[in-house]
Write a structure and sequence with these properties.
Number of domains: 3
Structural class: mainly beta
Distance between the termini: 109 Å
CATH topology of the largest domain: Neuraminidase
Keywords: Kelch repeat, Membrane, Repeat, Transmembrane, Transmembrane helix
Strand content: 35-45%
Shape: globular
CATH class of the largest domain: Mainly Beta
Radius of gyration: 34 Å
InterPro entries: Gal_Oxase/kelch_b-propeller, Gal_Oxidase_central_sf, Kelch_1
Length: about 500
C-alpha cells in the first residue's frame, strides 16, 4: 500500500514535471515568435518610415557640371532613382520631381554625402545615364563604404531640348564687379576693367590667365569708371574711353600689357557713357553716341593712336545710347537700335572711306540693352533686349547684301542685360540676363537651323556680367549682379 502510494505520488510528480516543461517550451516558442514578430514590425516600420520620409514632391538639388557632375543629397540609400520631369530656373539651383526608393536598411544614417557622378554622354534627351560608385562617408558613425547606384533621366520638355554641356567654376576675381568689360589680349590673357559694386565705381583691373586659371591684380586705372567702352589697338594696347563715375567722363586711358601700366591720353570732345568704340581697318578708333549726363548723343569721334588726337566726325542720323555696333565683312559699321527719347528700331551704316552715315532698313522691333553678333555667313544676329515697356525673346537677322531684316527663331526666355558670344563652331551662346528675375539659363543658336536650344544652366544667376571667347574656344563669364550683390565668381563654358 505504501509502495502504491509512493508510486502514485511519483506519477503525479512526474506528470507535474512533464506539464511544467510542456508549458515552459510553449512559453519559449511564443516568446521567440513574438520577438521575431516585433523585429519584423520594427524593420518594416523603418523601411516604411524611410520611404515616407524620402521626398516625393518638388525638391532641390545643386548640379554643378564640369569634368564631373556633383550631386548633393541628404539621404544615401542603396539605390536612388531620380526622374527629372522639367527643369525650372530658380537662382543657382534646379528644381525637379524626385522619388527615392529605399531597397535596403542601412545600419546608420548619413547626415550629408556628396557623390561624384561621371556621365558618359553629353547629350541627354529622353535618355538615362547610370553611374556606379562608392559613397563617401561624411558625419557618419560606424558605416562601411557601400555601393550606390544613381539613375538620372532627363526628358524633352516643351518646344526645346536640354543638353548637358560643360559649365565649371574657375578661380574667383579679386573684386566683385558688374557693368565692367573684358578683353582678350594678344597673349591670350583676359583683361577685366572697372565696373562697379554696391559700394563704389571701380578703378581696379585684373588679369586672368586661362592656362593656369588664376587671377592677378594689375595697375589701377587713373579714373574709376563703369559703362565705358574698350578697343584693342593694332599694337596690342587697350584703349578705354569714357564711361561714368558720378558723372559721364570724357577721359581716355591706354593700358600697356607688356608693362602693366596705364597712360592718360587725349580726352574726347564729349563726355559719354553707354557708347560704343570700334577699331577700324586703318587702326583708328570710332566712338559713337552715348549719354553725356543730360542728353543722348548722335556725335561721333575718331581717335588716331599715332598722333594721340581726337577728331569730331559726321553725326549719326539718330542720337542713341545702349546701342550696338558691328563690323561688317565689307569693313563698314552697322549701328543698331538703342535708346533716344524712346527705344529705336533704326539702323545705319558707317563707311570709313567716305565717313558718311547712311540709313538702312529698320528692325522689326525697337530695342535697347540687346546684343548683336556677326555670324560666319556675314549676317548680323540681334538678340533680345527691352523697349521700355516689354522684354523681348525675339531675334532678327540683318543681311548686308540686301539690307533686309528678317525674324529668326525666338529665345526660350525673354531677357535683357545678357551677354552673347560667337563660338568657334559658328553657333551663338546667350547667357544670363534679367527677365523680372535674374537668370542662370543659357541658350545656343544654330544659324543652320535658326533654332535656339537650352544648354545647361550656369552655376549662378547673373546679369550685367561680361563674356569673352578664349583662344582655346572656351567662354569665360565674369562677375555681374546676382544673389543681391556684385559677383566675383567666374565660370567657363566648353562644348
Amino acid at each position: 500500500m505504501h509502495n502504491n502510494q509512493v508510486y502514485i505520488e511519483g506519477l503525479i510528480v512526474n506528470g507535474r514535471t512533464r506539464k511544467y516543461w510542456h508549458r515552459r517550451w510553449f512559453k519559449i516558442v511564443c516568446i521567440v515568435l513574438i520577438t521575431f514578430l516585433i523585429l519584423a514590425i520594427i524593420s518594416f516600420s523603418l523601411v516604411l518610415g524611410l520611404v515616407i520620409l524620402a521626398p516625393n514632391k518638388a525638391g532641390t538639388t545643386t548640379i554643378s557640371i564640369a569634368t564631373e557632375t556633383l550631386i548633393t543629397t541628404t539621404v544615401v540609400p542603396s539605390m536612388i532613382t531620380t526622374s527629372i520631369k522639367e527643369l525650372i530656373t530658380t537662382s543657382a539651383t534646379v528644381e525637379f520631381q524626385s522619388t527615392m526608393l529605399i531597397s535596403t536598411i542601412m545600419s546608420t544614417t548619413l547626415e550629408s554625402t556628396t557623390m561624384p557622378v561621371s556621365l558618359t554622354s553629353a547629350k541627354l534627351v529622353s535618355t538615362t545615364e547610370t553611374a556606379v560608385m562608392p559613397s563617401k562617408e561624411s558625419q557618419t558613425t560606424g558605416i562601411q563604404t557601400s555601393t550606390v547606384k544613381i539613375t538620372t533621366t532627363l526628358k524633352q520638355s516643351g518646344k526645346f531640348q536640354y543638353f548637358l554641356l560643360g559649365w565649371s567654376y574657375t578661380a574667383r576675381m579679386n573684386q566683385g564687379r558688374q557693368e565692367h568689360t573684358t578683353s582678350v589680349l594678344s597673349d591670350g590673357r583676359v583683361l577685366v576693367i572697372g565696373g562697379s559694386n554696391r559700394a563704389a565705381i571701380l578703378r581696379s583691373v585684373e588679369l586672368y590667365d586661362p592656362s593656369t586659371e588664376t587671377w592677378m591684380v594689375t595697375a589701377n586705372m587713373n579714373s574709376a569708371r563703369q559703362n565705358h567702352a574698350v578697343s584693342i589697338l593694332n599694337d596690342g594696347k587697350v584703349l578705354v574711353t569714357g564711361g561714368q563715375d558720378s558723372n559721364p567722363l570724357n577721359s581716355v586711358e591706354l593700358y600697356d600689357p607688356t608693362t602693366g601700366t596705364w597712360t592718360i591720353v587725349a580726352n574726347m570732345a564729349y563726355a559719354r557713357s553707354l557708347h560704343t568704340s570700334t577699331l577700324l581697318a586703318n587702326g583708328k578708333v570710332l566712338v559713337t553716341g552715348g549719354w553725356d549726363g543730360n542728353d543722348v548723343l548722335n556725335s561721333t569721334e575718331l581717335y588716331d593712336p599715332l598722333t594721340n588726337t581726337w577728331t569730331i566726325r559726321s553725326t549719326m542720323n539718330d542720337a542713341r545710347h545702349s546701342h550696338t555696333i558691328s563690323t561688317l565683312s565689307n569693313g563698314k559699321m552697322l549701328v543698331v537700335g538703342g535708346k533716344g527719347i524712346n527705344a529705336l528700331n533704326t539702323a545705319e551704316v558707317y563707311d570709313p572711306s567716305s565717313e558718311i552715315w547712311t540709313n538702312t532698313n529698320r528692325m522689326n522691333y525697337a530695342r535697347y540693352f540687346h546684343t548683336a553678333s556677326l555670324l560666319t555667313d556675314g549676317k548680323i544676329l540681334v538678340v533680345a533686349g527691352w523697349n521700355g515697356f516689354q522684354l523681348f525673346d525675339g531675334a532678327e537677322l540683318y543681311d548686308p547684301t540686301t539690307g533686309i531684316w528678317s525674324n529668326t527663331g525666338s529665345l526660350n526666355i525673354r531677357r535683357q542685360y545678357s551677354a552673347t558670344s560667337l563660338l568657334t563652331n559658328g553657333k551663338v551662346l546667350v547667357t544670363g540676363g534679367y527677365t523680372g528675375y535674374m537668370l542662370d539659363s543659357a541658350e545656343l543658336y544654330d544659324p543652320s537651323t535658326e533654332i535656339w536650344t537650352y544648354v545647361d544652366h550656369m552655376n549662378e544667376a547673373r546679369f550685367f556680367h561680361a563674356a569673352c571667347v578664349l583662344n582655346d574656344g572656351r567662354v569665360l563669364i565674369t562677375g555681374g549682379y546676382g544673389n543681391i550683390q556684385s559677383l566675383n565668381t567666374a565660370e567657363l563654358f566648353k562644348l
